[in-house]
């Protein structure tokens, strides 16, 4: 299957700082990318949908000024958690949808805010 | 909006078949997916089925779709210990242009 990478896989940051997570589709062009958050032993919660070159669409309850999404190209999307707080600690997973029906997921980024 | 439900846990013996069930509510769902998640990892796409299909087979995996009852199942033949993981079903609707995930089913394979 197609490969989606995320970087970093783990990050620890101090409260109040910002963290950027990169998501890349390595062997296909992703028209749409998604960012999810997963709490322990829970399902995935969609945070936002981004299309290349346009503003992201955020799900209800997700603060767009806190979770900045940029979809700079057909292979790269970034999520920046601004002014991070301990409650932002979570597992963040990106996903990329190609021209067909497949939707592939990255390996996830474990964010810990101290 | 779409609601996707799964049972939380399934335990099977190695070598037996596993059947993981899923129900969804939106009859306009066009694609239905099965993903596997191992601890600390992302989601691995196992297979998906278009809504106008009843069945799809891919090696040890068989997906059955009952569109009338909005019921999806994943059968894993000859289940191995490496199949132990959480399995998520997901439904895609074109109007919402996004996947809605079930709660995930934890599959435990015992010797």
Main beta sheet strand tally, sense and closure of chain A: 7 strands, mixed
The separation of the N and C termini of chain B measures 41 Å
Regions with little confidence, pLDDT below 50 for 5+ residues of chain B: none
DSSP summary: helix tally of chain A: 0
Q: Output the structural class of chain A.
A: mainly beta
Portion of residues within helices of chain B? under 10%
Most residues in contact: chain pair: A-B, 21 and 20 residues
Arithmetic mean pLDDT of chain A: 93
Principal-axis shape of chain B:
globular
SSE layout and pairing:
The complex is a heterodimer of chains A (114) and B (111).
Chain A: E1 4-7, E2 10-13, E3 19-25, E4 32-38, E5 44-51, E6 57-58, E7 67-73, E8 76-81, E9 90-97, E10 103-105, E11 109-113
Parallel strand pairs in A: 2-11
Antiparallel strand pairs in A: 1-3, 3-8, 4-5, 4-9, 5-6, 7-8, 9-10, 9-11
Chain B: E1 4-6, E2 9-13, E3 18-24, E4 29-37, E5 43-50, E6 55-58, E7 61-66, E8 71-76, E9 85-93, E10 98-101, E11 105-110
Parallel strand pairs in B: 2-11
Antiparallel strand pairs in B: 1-3, 3-8, 4-5, 4-9, 6-7, 7-8, 9-10, 9-11
Please give a structural write-up.
The complex is a heterodimer of chains A (114) and B (111). Chain A has strands at 4-7, 10-13, 19-25, 32-38, 44-51, 57-58, 67-73, 76-81, 90-97, 103-105, 109-113. With 114 residues, chain A is an all-beta fold. In chain A, the strands form two sheets. In chain A, strands 2, 4, 5, 6, 9, 10 and 11 form a seven-stranded mixed sheet that branches. A four-stranded antiparallel sheet of chain A has the order 1-3-8-7, with no helix packed on it. Chain A is globular. The model of chain A has no long low-confidence stretch (mean pLDDT 93). Chain B has no helices and eleven strands. The chains are: A mainly beta (114), B mainly beta (111). The A-B interface holds A 1, 4, 6, 32, 34, 42-44, 46, 49, 93, 95, 101-108, 110 and B 31, 33, 35, 40-45, 48, 50, 88, 92, 97-99, 101-104.
């Amino acid at each position: 299957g197609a490969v989606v990478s995320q970087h970093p896989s783990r990050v620890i940051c101090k409260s109040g700082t910002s963290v950027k997570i990169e998501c890349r589709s390595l062997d296909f062009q992703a028209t749409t990318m998604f960012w999810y958050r997963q709490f322990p032993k829970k399902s995935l919660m969609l945070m936002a949908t981004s299309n290349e070159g346009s503003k992201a669409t955020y799900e209800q309850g997700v603060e767009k000024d806190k979770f900045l999404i940029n979809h700079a190209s057909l292979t790269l999307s970034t999520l920046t958690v601004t002014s991070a707080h301990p409650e932002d600690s979570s597992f963040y997973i990106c996903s990329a949808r190609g021209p067909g029906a497949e939707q592939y997921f990255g390996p996830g980024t474990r964010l810990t805010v101290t | 909006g779409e609601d996707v439900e799964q049972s939380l846990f399934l335990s099977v013996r190695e070598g037996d078949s596993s059947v993981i069930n899923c129900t969804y509510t939106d009859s306009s769902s066009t694609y239905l997916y099965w993903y596997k998640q191992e601890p600390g990892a992302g989601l691995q796409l196992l297979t998906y089925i278009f809504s106008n299909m009843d069945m799809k087979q891919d090696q040890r995996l068989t997906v059955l779709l009952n569109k009338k009852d909005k019921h999806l199942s994943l059968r894993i033949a000859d289940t191995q210990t490496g199949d132990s993981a959480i399995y998520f079903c997901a439904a895609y609707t074109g109007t919402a242009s996004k996947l809605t995930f079930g709660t995930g089913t934890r599959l435990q394979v015992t010797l």
